[in-house]
Amino acid sequence: MTKQEMTDKFGMLYDMMASSNDVKQMHTFGEVMKRMMAWCIENKPEMAEEYIEELCAIKWRQYLTRNEATEVVRGMKPEAPWDYSTWEKAMEAMHLEMEREGVFNRYALWVAMNQVYTDFGESTARMLGEPLSKIPAETIVPYMHDMAVALLTDPDGKYCIREYHLK
Predict the structure, then answer these.
(1) In angstroms, rounded to a whole number, what is the distance separating the alpha carbons of residues 156 and 154?
(2) Cβ neighbours around 157 below 10 Å, total
(3) Helical H runs in 44-136?
(4) Rounded distance, CA 51 to CA 150, Å?
(5) Distances from the Cα of 45 to the Cαs of 40, 48, 49, 55, 119, in angstroms?
(6) Quick one: pLDDT at residue 57?
């Protein structure tokens, strides 16, 4: 089989399994994937780790891997205010929620807070009556946190961080 034929056949079998209600098909596909992952872990551990991180999206409604989030933040215009370690230290120091099990993970929140800051930081500063550059982190970070959490937990469910930033 050529690479294209293998790709096409795999895609067809995946689509067949994914659209089926037959649990046997899901188990067959899953068992093959377990063997493939075991080989990948043994021979390509970095790749295996990346795949496992991407599969963690199953556990969360709003999820990004660290690599995905880093790429998003790196490409933000205007420039994002917080790199990951700066953000994490601020969150810990202020005892702010970084993850909500099943709802959003820390990398989704990090991106959302940077997004909210770059999109609405100046507007928030005007509401606070100060230039953004004059507002201390201990004041602005909780505002950005609350707005980002609201975005990620929107009850309408219209906002999807993966679709917004990665598609």
Answers:
(1) 5
(2) 8
(3) 45-55, 66-74, 84-93, 106-128
(4) 29
(5) 6, 5, 6, 15, 38
(6) 83
